[in-house]
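Posting for a labmate who doesn't have an account.
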Amino acid sequence: MAVEDVFPRKPGRQVLATGCVERGRVRPGDEVQLVGAGGGATVAVVAVEVGRVPVREAGAGTNVAVQLPASVSGSVARGQVLAAPGSVRSCTGFTADLTPMPEEHGGAEIRTGTVLRFHVLTAVVLGTVTLPEGTDVLHPVHQGTVTIALESPVALEPGRRFAYRHHGRAAGQGTVGRLLP
């Protein structure tokens, strides 16, 4: 589940993280790992709510609120992912197939060293693009494989789609290829 919002619940006792279950299911008592910037902690789910109603289980495609213990109150943030321990990893480097939008729709040329704002699930992070050797520029509408170095870790998997912005404008999309160590 990608964390969309975080709310304190019962001051000093619990934290409420909201989002949509992407795959699998979540139940009270399940162990989940916080994946992404500032994550890494593994905690037990206290309760699961759908539409402010407690439920025993929520499956893929359901918008939920997951109550977590207060011990993670400063660690949970928008952009992180709650996942089964070890099922998803966070990283700062990966290869991707980028497809810039047409110039009239905001697409722009991409060169090595271009800094873009990447939107992966609910995470927003800056990253620097490196083009393959022998390629000077990636023109709008032309797809290309690039290497991306992010400023902070994000939960990623091969095949994950993302969008990116350039100078504050939507500029294109991409698909994660290979995660780099």
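Reply:
Got it, the structure tokens are right above this. The chain has a mean pLDDT of 93.
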